[in-house]
């Protein structure tokens, strides 16, 4: 990561953060809110062209991160280094965003599609935040010290200051929205809903959030003494948890020879738990170490605990590596295991460096060098994982295909859905290749690959299964008793529908039951079907008949009504009436479109007995 220390201008002192920077930060927050609203509006309308879908995610990511980087740079970086840094950051963010969309599959869980746009993956957003936090701290420290690699104490001060700034800024935004919602409730008490309606408007909510966040960042920046005091108190408190955590981890390690490793492997989550323990020790050791210049003021019990924790870290990480090795050896690489392996590489760096520091004549002196080296390692890892260089989806798909082709797993037991929903573009391409499979078990491979490609989501395990017309008639009890379900309804292939994930399970599973009520809900003179599932955690649905005599999902009921026995009993008893609803129609050319008012689910309650 370049430090831009070659700039001949002197670094700005902390006191250079003035009212001018405050107004620039507010302006940046306001412009960010405006840009995010424009993107939100385009995402929720037909304004965005599907042909430009790949551009939406990069624009969204740059709009999220670049303004925040500008805000935390104002007053601390001169114009030239700040401009270069923001340009580099924007290029990195946009490039990773483009690749994230290109590699993704709109039906897979890595993307969330709405309208004509695809949103970036949650993992990318999360790790971009971590990566740019580390990179900005390293850059700012280098500029302040006029060195490519700054002193550890400078990194420590900048990193912890930024952590506390961001934490309090998020808290400030949360409290701000709490106050606004409370105000809306107060006005609602006197039948004034203007504030509640205003808070529901995206053109108001988004800029208020970004303005509040930028304001909080500025306030915490001009009060360095308060930030430093909070940091010192937090680290002292955390350092006194270190003896307790060290005792727990040492007790666990001592108990292993007695209990054995088998109970650990049987949890099937040993790697994650051990990584969590390692992360806890790393954080607490650093809470005691701080900037490396306070060892004389640290309590003896905390200093001893830090040495013991540094030694305990090595076997904990070694156990986590072995646990991951066992899973990979048995089941191959997956996306989660590759990410876990990257975490383990970082943990190994910490464990080795901290173990060496135990034997240093100056208390834990090597911790500083280890933290610096690991920070750069994390940045390299993040760039590799979210770029084509070391994409977990590509590597895991190749690993799983090698297991299938090598005969290490039977074709009937192979997880084709993993390729479909976690392999991104590479998984889908692999399934399409499997459609051309030849040789032993070729028919099974082709059939299962085709079934996986036809699935619309990974949550509904029954999707793609077929329920016969006779079975569907047995699954559904029709009310009134003299009515029958139309043949076109029972013979329709609901499991293959694009709306399958919204449908009651009795349309897709032979084991589920429903009650069907024949009602003219739409007022067109023909019976519609109100379907209530027997399961209380599944929403009811309304189906209407189209002009081609096919049936389609018209809408769903609030979940509170599905689990309401009195609602179902009143419908069975005929204790209901159909009331006419006045709707306005939008006429475009020679086509009329009904405009329906959506219900507020919070206003729908279970009727009394």
TrEMBL record:
Keyword list, A-Z: Membrane, Transmembrane, Transmembrane helix
Keyword Transferase appears in the UniProt entry: no
This protein's record includes keyword Disulfide bond: no
Pfam family, one: DUF4153
Top-rank taxon: Bacteria
InterPro entries referenced in this protein's UniProt entry, alphabetically: DUF4153 (IPR025291)
Membrane-crossing residue ranges in chain numbering: 23-43, 55-77, 84-102, 122-141, 162-190, 202-220, 232-258, 270-289, 301-326, 338-359, 371-390
UniProt name for this protein: DUF4153 domain-containing protein
Gene source species: Noviherbaspirillum humi
